Amino acid sequence: MITDMDNFTLHMPTKVIFGRGTETGVGQEVRKHSGNILLHYGGGSIKRTGLYDRVVESLEKAGIKFAELGGVVPNPRLSMVRKGIELCRKEGIDFILAVGGGSVIDSSKAIAAGAPYEGDVWDFFTKKTVIKNPLKVGVILTISAAGSEMSPSMVITNEEGGRKLSARSDLSRPVFSILNPELTFTLPKKQIAYGSADMFAHIVERYFTNTKNVDVTDEMCEAVMRSIIRNSKKAVADPKDYDAQAELMWAGTVAHNGILGTGREEDWASHKIEHELSAAYDIAHGAGLAVIIPAWMKYVYKHDTARFARYGRNVFHVFEKDDEKAALMGIKETEKFFSSLGLETTLKGLGIGGSRFEEMSRLAAKPEPIGNFVSLDAGDIVKIYRLALG
Amino acid sequence: MITDMDNFTLHMPTKVIFGRGTETGVGQEVRKHSGNILLHYGGGSIKRTGLYDRVVESLEKAGIKFAELGGVVPNPRLSMVRKGIELCRKEGIDFILAVGGGSVIDSSKAIAAGAPYEGDVWDFFTKKTVIKNPLKVGVILTISAAGSEMSPSMVITNEEGGRKLSARSDLSRPVFSILNPELTFTLPKKQIAYGSADMFAHIVERYFTNTKNVDVTDEMCEAVMRSIIRNSKKAVADPKDYDAQAELMWAGTVAHNGILGTGREEDWASHKIEHELSAAYDIAHGAGLAVIIPAWMKYVYKHDTARFARYGRNVFHVFEKDDEKAALMGIKETEKFFSSLGLETTLKGLGIGGSRFEEMSRLAAKPEPIGNFVSLDAGDIVKIYRLALG
Q1: Interface-testing mutation among B2, B3, B5, B171, with chain A (most A C-beta atoms within 10 A)
Q2: Among all residues of chain B, which has the CA nearest to that of A214?
Q3: What are the angstrom distances between the C-alpha of A364 and each of A169, A361, A376?
């Protein structure tokens, strides 16, 4: 048990450009870094909304040459990353502009890491080697969720084998991120709910720690969680509520840029348990988290009942003196929060049964047990999937 | 009246290296930027504590050539800045290592801004011109207070005329800051109290705003204020309490790096009113703030009683339904908090009378009224000084 604040390094050089209309300045911002870029995006939504046209106009006005690669899908694929790397090499590209959400940004970061590397880009994810001298990445964010817009990490799915793995480097943080909440006005309510669950989970993974005496960070975690709860409900109710969408966008960025994890051991078991789920069933990451987070909480809370009681009291305003009761009420409130956004909180609700629990648990605990708050092996993970069944 | 979150740009590229023993790696960190630096510090304390020797050893081990300039005083002087600029030019220096607190860091930033500039460095403070291409600055922090270790701003006193003015540029943010809470163990309790008042005031200046719907930032401001209150009391009671000093050091950095001011208009009247006080009487900045902040609050609270009531309730746990009463109780609690640290909360307590109120008020309101929460002219400022008299 660590008894006081851990040493830490925090380096978040991403320039945040936040607010209405900010995407129209993207050309000038890119110009500071490059004149020959890859424009990377997902499906057709950025063309439907007119965002694509505004971006292209701004790039052309700034005299920036660009190649295009669209078609990134949720749970972004290694094959797309390889295609991007090839294109960057062929065109002598040194900058990638990601226009989209976490999937597009993660795909961009992986391309940026892989392009200058002689070996196979998957090596960064299997931890065979570390990222060195990646290309630069800039972002125009279109969904508040993953926090990849200011984070050092990326998650890619290798479709040969269905494995979803992460890599991270401070060098992979975007050089700039343009955050215009108006770009989220056209999102389906379901997407807003998934995104809210994702950012909330990013804080849960940092909040439940064995490091004692990390008071500033604890307070800030609770502060941002409360704000996500309030504003996600408003944004789902009315996706054109600028204030709610703005708070959610900024909360999602702060949730994952590292500042809420300073000086403490983080957990990350729930994310790994969910990654196997979305790799196996190709569900949205946020949908999986809304199921896994409460199940994980039920399985581990006795490890530090007082901490879970504090969570219930400070995040959900549970008014209960008894720690055990307050802890359980906090977990119940977490489920209610996800439900209030229209999310399922059981695997059954998602139409998923128990047939692959053993296989997913083995993969999640490979090569070693996961989680720092409580270390979980394959046997534990099966039990968590069962608790999630509903 | 602005009704929703303002657009903003936030760029905090300072690499934070936090924890026990971290200063021993300073040579390697500097090496990434320069081989020929200015080592800038204050009085004799860094030599007495052995910090100076550790820094010099680390620099020498990394093969870094350095010139030295010590003797920075609180309310750092323009004459010292000019001396530093001359030295940098003579020795072809391109990096300044600040070992000390806010005064040393601010002096370093001003030298860094002035060295490559053809005109007079005071031009940046009179706003005649803006900072371009400053030298790089690195920091080893020895007191939790000013937040200059990650901020874009600096405050310098021009002793010809006794004016204390600020300048700011994102280019002036240090490239790295080494924050070892152990370095604050030897501080006099008074200094810890001054520092705590200073960082608390940095949040007050951001918290009281006319911008509505800045929920994430409001929540985070309150979170860090609560943490400062708790931990400053502990640190003053026992300066060798690592946990308390660590929280205070991180809180002081977060309080002023910009993240608690995102998306909102900030105030800064109290700082300007205090700057005239410490320029006139050469008192510690934190000592002046503990007097000015409550007086400012009493003068302006009716402008937004509900906001002050929220402050009382959320920061000081005031349990009172009536807004007017809760607001006044919050202000009273602010005074009690400063008193609990051993600080005076009246000018009389500091031995200062009213003889220079008119003169200081005129200077503070020059060239224009100050404050954004409530705009204050010289007539208002005199009244605030009078409220502060006690």
Answers
A1: B5
A2: B247
A3: 22, 5, 10
**pLDDT tens sequence across B139-182:** 999 999 999 999 999 999 998 877 889 999 999 999 999 999 99
B21-179 maps to which CATH number?
3.40.50.1970
Cβ-defined contact of B7 to A13 (cutoff 8 Å) = no
Interface of chain A toward chain B, CB-CB under 8 angstroms: 4-22, 212-217, 219-220, 222-224, 226-227, 230-231, 242-243, 246-247, 250-251, 254, 259, 262-263
User: Is the pLDDT assigned to residue B1 strictly greater than 50?
Assistant: no
Cβ contacts of B222 on chain A, cutoff 8 Å? 223
Given pLDDT bands bounded at 50, 70 and 90, which one contains residue B243?
A: very high
| Omega cis (within 30) before A367 | yes
pLDDT number for residue A2:
45
CA dist A95 → A13, A351, B300 (Å): 16, 41, 50
C-beta atoms of B223 and A219 within 8 A: yes
A6, A222, A242 ranked by CB distance to B19: nearest: A6
What whole-number distance in Å separates Cα of residue B12 and Cα of residue B255? 13
**CA-CA distance, A85 to A42, in Å (whole number)?**
16
Please answer yes or no on whether A215 and B222 come within 8 Å at the CB atom.
no
Specify the CATH number of the domain A189-389: 1.20.1090.10
Please state the domain extents for chain B: 21-179, 187-389
pLDDT at A1: 40
Q: How far does B109 lie from chain A, in Å, by closest CA?
A: 19
- Other beta carbons less than 10 A from residue B110's beta carbon: 30
pLDDT at A239 over 70: yes
The DSSP element (H or E) to which B310 belongs, if any, is helix B305-316
Residues in chain A with CB shorter than 8 Å from the CB of B7 are 18-22
Topology of the domain covering A15-183: Rossmann fold (3.40.50)
What is the rounded (10 degree) CA torsion for B23, B27, B29, B30? 120
Cβ pair B33, B138 in contact under 8 A: yes
- Select the residue of A11, A214, A224 nearest B220 (Cβ to Cβ): A224
Whether B18 sits inside 8 A of A250 (CB atoms) is no
pLDDT score, position A3? 57
Burial A17-51, CB ≥16 within 10 A → b, else e: bbbeebbeebbebbeebbeebbbbbbeebbeeeeb
The CA distance from A309 to A318, in Å, is 9
Q: Do domains A15-183 and A189-389 have the same CATH topology?
A: no
pLDDT band at B3 (very low <50, low <70, confident <90, very high): low
Contact A262 B250 (CB under 8 A): yes
Taking CA atoms, what residue in B is nearest to A23? B7
**Average pLDDT along chain B:** 96
Across the interface, whether the CB atoms of A247 and B19 are under 8 A apart is answered no
Does residue A162 carry a pLDDT above 50?
Answer: yes
Q: Which residues in chain A touch residue B174, judged by CB atoms under 8 angstroms apart? A: none
**Helices B242-254 and B189-207: angle between axes, nearest 10 degrees:** 40
Q: How far off is chain B from A294, nearest CA to CA, in Å?
A: 24
Opening angle at CA B260, ends B254 and B265, nearest 5: 145
Query: Poorest-confidence range of A107-116, B190-199, B207-216?
Result: B207-216
- Tell me the pLDDT tens digit for each residue of A169-210: 999 999 999 999 999 999 999 999 999 999 999 999 999 999
Q: How close, in Å, is residue A95 to chain B by CA atoms?
A: 19
- Greatest distance between any 2 Cα atoms in chain B: 64
Give B32's contacts (C-beta < 8 A, 6+ positions apart): none
Interface predicted TM-score (ipTM) of this complex, two decimals: 0.93
> Which is the CATH superfamily of the domain at B187-389?
Dehydroquinate synthase-like - alpha domain (1.20.1090.10)
